[in-house]
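Good morning C.,

I know you're traveling, so I'll keep this short. The sequence:
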Amino acid sequence: MNKLIVPSIIVVEGESDKAFLSSFIKAYFFVTNGLDISKEKLEFLSLASKQKEIIVLTDNDEAGERIRNKINSVIKTAKNIKISGFSRKNYKKRGVAESSIEEITTLLKPFSTSTDFEIVDYELSTLISLNENPSKIKEEIIQKYHLLEGSNKSIENQLNILGINKEELYGNYKKQHHPNRQFE
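The tokens, ready to paste straight into the viewer:
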């Protein structure tokens, strides 16, 4: 199955939403992890909105509406996609992860393109392990690019959202920590 290519940041509430959507959509996903969205996450999304379009695709319920409203209060250009709330299966919950592929595809089609894009594998764990103080380099990366704390995978996702290329990331690291070392 060919994935629908949406070169935007799709904001979802949970990992199950991301897992479902990424099975048929190629996009940059940002997970709020719950009912609300923190000030730090809003600041990151505001920064990211300068690079890519923000599409808010949250559940059709009170929590989803609260997240949409908070994002829209900070990012005036955010696009809002509302699902019908009907389930593709007999679930009690009527959220994004329970929606039909057809409904989601129809709603996101206007934002799609035929031009593919690359999701970079930064090999962040390798870069971090090259430092005598791994937590220091991770913190430097977070501070330099105004990222949210998180796992290496989460940080790599944020770097992709911001469009930071691997050469820039490694180049900055090399200049600061290993000026005479060659990186691939």
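Safe travels,
E.
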